[in-house]
Write a structure and sequence with these properties.
Elements lengths: L1 E2 L7 H9 L2 H8 L7 H4 L4 H7 L3 E11 L9 H7 L10 E14 L3 E4 L1 H4 L4 E5 L5 E10 L4 E6 L22 E6 L7 E12 L10 E4 L11 E3 L5 E8 L10 E5 H14 L9 E5 L2 H7 L7 E6 L4 H4 L7 E5 L2 E2 L3 H9 L6 E8 L2 E8 L12 E2 L9 E5 L2 H7 L8 E6 L4 H5 L7 E5 L2 E2 L17 E7 L2 E8 L3 E5 L1
């Protein structure tokens, strides 16, 4: 551990020092404004010729069953009319949608958005040369709104785009957006990077986006945001609009996040992100003043998971994480993004404010542990909890369930609708079981001895949406809950 003797005012210098300056200086030299009328007349056509063949159109089909009116299931109605009204039967219709995608491997690996293919029964990819292929889903990650597809185009290598290091993107860089807006066909629009590291947009769990003013419209989702080197800077994902059309504010998932999802799809096949093992809160202006900082920014650690990478690096409650790998973090989504884009086992330098001084800590990232084992079990027997599927929570399982990684206990995963628990909603998916009939529940194995058959009543405690509830069931008579 390296400790600095100067005060917090040198924080920014430390962050910049961790990042290094040589590469940044080289990168700056390439940025110039036009010097002559000839330069003003320069064209983006060479970049488009190289990049556009790797951008594809995606068409999906989903079979949707319309709901049968409850009137036709009414016993009185059926008594008089039976099932003679065929129009009361559920109807099927095919719903289509469109989007874009980017070929990133010559064997037909394609990156697109999760929301483009979500729920699709059929996925068809149309290349820029108008060839059509059926696609299968290799990996679908709603948390980043990314999906990896695969097509079989034979032995012929397909055109691809190379993923850039999106950390080098700067505000003011010229970018091109390539996609299929409104289904009219492949279209190229141009603009600049309007902002970097946009968070708090509510688009995905790892909200950290490149903002651009290049026109992006419905159908552009999953398409390419390309830089002047012809590399893929990001995947166009969302727009900020009151009408559904472009207002000059578009968001793209950075290429570095795409790399992490692609790496999992091609190697492990299952996406498990490394973790740091801390819970924290963004440092606001008021908190900054109390901590001796001259501005808001950073993550104040509220809790450290025992044995986690953060614990092994001696991070403590009250420390403030200011930078990860030389990149400043100003809020929790930014921290989550930085960690999620790194590989398991990576050594990462953190800038941490601890005891009034900026310190450099080296963290070795690891995958969240699955301890205890999830032990997913569907309950059976003569009791109100019959048909409820439960499992032990752990940091690894919580990550899959998109829960707080620190949450412990037994979670309700599914409830069979055909059982009393499903009909009367004694339990709901996401509930955490805390106790039953005076017995504390910490593991799935704790339930078997306490769920006796033919009990007169069951008093149990749960946590639902952050609130503690106590409920009582008298079988075949009543059910109630209170805070």
């Amino acid at each position: 551990m390296k400790q600095f003797t100067k005060r917090v005012s040198l924080m920014i210098a430390l962050i910049g020092g961790l990042a290094g300056t040589a590469h940044a200086q080289d990168y700056e030299v390439t940025r110039e404004v036009p010097q002559s009328s000839a330069q003003v007349q320069l064209s983006y056509a060479p970049i488009v010729r190289e990049a556009a063949p790797a951008v594809v159109n995606i068409y999906t089909k989903q079979v949707v069953r319309s709901r049968r009116s409850a009137l036709f299931d009414d016993p009185l109605f059926q008594r008089f009319f039976g099932d003679q009204f065929s129009f009361g039967m559920p109807q099927e219709r095919v719903r289509g949608s469109l989007g874009s995608g980017v070929i990133v491997r010559p064997n037909g690996v394609i990156v697109t958005n999760h929301h483009v293919i979500d729920g699709a029964d059929e996925i068809q990819v149309v290349l820029a040369d108008r060839r059509e292929f059926d696609a299968r889903v290799v990996l679908d990650d709603p948390r980043t709104d990314l999906a990896i597809l695969q097509i079989d185009a034979g032995d012929e290598p397909l055109p691809t785009l190379t993923l850039s290091d999106s950390d080098n993107v700067e505000v003011g860089d010229i970018v091109l957006a390539i996609g299929n807006p409104f289904g009219i066909g492949q279209t190229v629009t141009g603009g600049i990077v309007s902002a970097n590291a946009r968070t708090q947009q509510g688009i995905s769990d790892f909200g950290f986006f490149i903002q651009t003013d290049a026109a992006v419209n419905p159908g552009n989702s999953g398409g390419a945001l390309v830089g002047m080197t012809g590399e893929l800077l990001g995947i166009n994902t969302a727009i900020y609009s009151r009408t559904g059309a472009s207002n000059g504010i578009g968001f793209a998932v950075p290429a570095n996040m795409v790399k992490s999802v692609l790496r999992a799809a091609l190697n492990e096949g299952q996406l498990v992100r490394p973790w740091l093992g801390v819970n924290g809160q963004s440092v606001t202006g008021d908190l900054a003043a109390s901590l001796g900082l001259d501005r808001a920014g950073g993550i104040l650690i509220d809790d450290v998971f025992p044995g986690s990478p953060a614990a092994m690096a001696d991070l403590k409650v009250g420390d403030v994480i200011m930078a990860v790998g030389g990149k400043e973090v100003i809020d929790e989504p930014g921290l989550n993004f930085r960690i999620a884009t790194m590989e398991n086992g990576a050594e990462v330098a953190l800038a941490v404010l601890s005891e009034g001084f900026i310190q450099e800590r080296t963290v070795i990232l690891a995958l969240p542990p699955e301890e205890p084992k999830r032990n997913v079990t569907k309950l059976d027997g003569r009791h109100p909890f019959q048909g409820v599927t439960i499992g032990n929570l752990s940091p690894r399982f919580n990550d899959e369930l998109q829960l707080d990684l620190f949450l412990k206990g037994v979670a309700v995963l599914e409830v069979d609708r055909r059982t009393p628990a499903g009909r009367y909603q004694f339990l709901l998916p996401g509930d955490i079981l805390l106790g039953i009939n005076g017995n504390r529940i910490e593991r799935v194995s704790d339930l078997t001895p306490v769920l006796g058959e033919d009990e007169e009543r069951y008093v149990y405690q749960i946590r639902r949406r952050g609130q503690a509830l106590e409920c009582m069931i008298i079988p075949n008579r009543s059910f109630r809950c209170r805070q």
